[in-house]
Amino acid sequence: MSVxxxxxxxxxxxxxxxxxxxxxxxxxxxxxxRARFEQASAERSERKAALxxxxxxxxxxxxxxxxLSMGERLDDSEMWQHLHALWLAKKVPELVCSPxxxxxxxxxxxxxxxxxxxxxxxxxTPPKRDLRFAFLEAARRELGTTNEPLRRDPAARExxx
Length: 161
Prior knowledge:
- Keywords: Membrane, Transmembrane, Transmembrane helix.
- This protein has a domain of 109 residues.
- The chain is mostly helical.
- The longest helix is centred in the first third of the chain and has 68 residues.
- Helix 3 runs antiparallel to helix 4.
- Helices cover 80% and strands 0% of the residues.
- The chain has 5 helices and no strands.
């Protein structure tokens, strides 16, 4: 009888300790998953904010280009203000986004800069529209929207029908 009175409590202590250790392991695992998810969510939010800031600055330059195309005249100070805001906003995706997004932002910014300054794009340079779509596609991949491409070419659709 003395063996059972010694072994059974010892077995209970071992099982209780094992249960506690397993419970702590599972709780730590859940906490680390939650921390990784929250970090990924915060990084995505930061990237999204950077992309929106850049698109806002690019939109202001596009608006100036539209005004110029309608024959309006821009003050030099207004043009420089918008270009400065665009180049500054372009630097934020370079800091928080992937290299493809940063390069697409740079290419789009360079094209907008050249157009607003009245310079003609170099030979072989894609049109502004294509650079904008390249940026948007890179940004969509960055944010996890990797389904069908954003741009649908009307001529290609007609041929496929």
